Design the sequence.
């Protein structure tokens, strides 16, 4: 598991100058801690690579890339890197701007934002994605876990795009991925990235943002499966279920844009983050004041929500939830979609179609 603390990788003072204080999170590469510089007392976040990754050449390469790429883009939507190095025990670390907030999925779950508000956060994410693409870099791992929503006034939450560990320059060799190492998260991975991670350009990130948008509106990613391979195969071979079927309340222009982001052929998607942002902005402006729920319907009062099945837990590693939890998530997703569909159809007085659609979703 990726979130198992590694005692070897968590010395109290890292690099002779960062005193670790609190574990903030973990991802596929390591752990992130809040820390304080022993002399200046500046608060930072220290990312420590798991022991095994630091002995792995690809892990070291990935680490160096993260430091260099994130630093080179220099956008407010990307955490500033202050320092990086190797600790006495050999483990690699990055010291960066300490962020306060929560992951995108957690934010959705905790704050229950309106669709307009959630799209506002997605637009701010796209500003960082656009800057990344303008710098000639493809992130290749955009997913809810790597999008951090900062604390701040409602409706204006700043966003930071995290984790440039597998980012790569569009032009340029990259030995770490030449070995055929498949990188990224299957739920948000474009078909071309699933087929060949070396060949993907900005449209692969557009797909990932599209998959997040799809999940925002339907409550589940566009492609699912019991294994990472099954998810990737589905993304390559199958059509996603149209948003208009699953979440009929979503405005058609928005549904069409998300469908475009999820086009199998990269050239049929918006070309990059800036192009997608330009198409999304007028849709958000038109939506102001329209109440559209995010994800699957909220549970009734007193009813427990199964967080396993929410966007918050469609996590980042290539490890999928256990089949039992996975099936449970799928069942809930199907029920949620069926409920929404029935609601819509009954409002249009079409009971027969509702029954058919509900059977199909279940
Ligand atoms: N600068 C930061 N400040 C606060 N928390 C952070 C920071 N960077 C990362 N995190 C937390 O740590 C988690 C893992 O970080 P990430 O960079 O995605 O690591 P990995 O490469 O291991 O996936 C994030 O999902 C987030 O919750
Ligand atoms: Mg991550």
Sequence:
């Amino acid at each position: 598991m990726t979130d198992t603390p590694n005692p070897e990788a968590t010395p109290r003072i890292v690099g002779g100058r960062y005193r670790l204080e609190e574990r903030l999170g973990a991802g596929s590469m390591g752990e992130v801690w809040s820390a304080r510089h022993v002399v200046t007392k500046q608060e930072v976040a220290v990312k420590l690579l798991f022991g095994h990754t630091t002995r792995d050449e690809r892990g070291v390469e990935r680490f160096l890339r993260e430091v260099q790429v994130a630093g080179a883009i220099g956008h407010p939507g990307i955490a500033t890197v202050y320092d990086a190095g190797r600790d006495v025990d050999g483990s690699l670390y990055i010291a960066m701007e300490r962020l306060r907030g929560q992951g995108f999925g957690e934010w959705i779950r905790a704050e229950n934002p309106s669709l307009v508000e959630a799209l506002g956060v997605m637009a701010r994410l796209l500003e960082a994605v656009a800057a990344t693409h303008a710098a000639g870099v493809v992130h290749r791992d955009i997913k809810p876990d790597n999008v951090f929503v900062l604390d701040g006034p409602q409706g204006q939450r700043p966003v930071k795009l995290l984790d440039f560990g597998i980012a790569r320059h569009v032009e340029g060799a990259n030995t770490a991925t030449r070995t055929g190492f498949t990188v990224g998260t299957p739920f948000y991975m474009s078909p071309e990235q699933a087929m060949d991670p070396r060949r993907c350009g900005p449209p692969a990130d557009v797909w990932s943002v599209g998959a997040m948008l799809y999940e925002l509106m339907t409550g589940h990613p566009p492609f699912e499966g019991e294994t990472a391979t099954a998810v990737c195969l589905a993304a390559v071979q199958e059509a996603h279920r149209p948003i208009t079927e699953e979440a009929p309340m979503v405005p058609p222009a928005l549904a069409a844009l998300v469908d475009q982001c999820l086009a199998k052929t990269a050239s049929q998607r918006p070309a990059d983050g800036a192009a997608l942002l330009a198409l999304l902005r007028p849709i958000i402006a038109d939506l102001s004041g329209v109440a559209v729920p995010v994800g699957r319907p909220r549970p009734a009062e007193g009813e427990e929500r199964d967080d396993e099945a929410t966007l918050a837990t469609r996590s980042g590693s290539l490890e999928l939830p256990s089949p039992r939890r996975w099936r449970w998530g799928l069942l809930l997703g199907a029920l949620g979609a069926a409920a929404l569909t029935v609601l819509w159809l009954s409002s249009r007085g079409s009971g027969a179609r509702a029954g058919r659609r509900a059977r199909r979703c279940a």
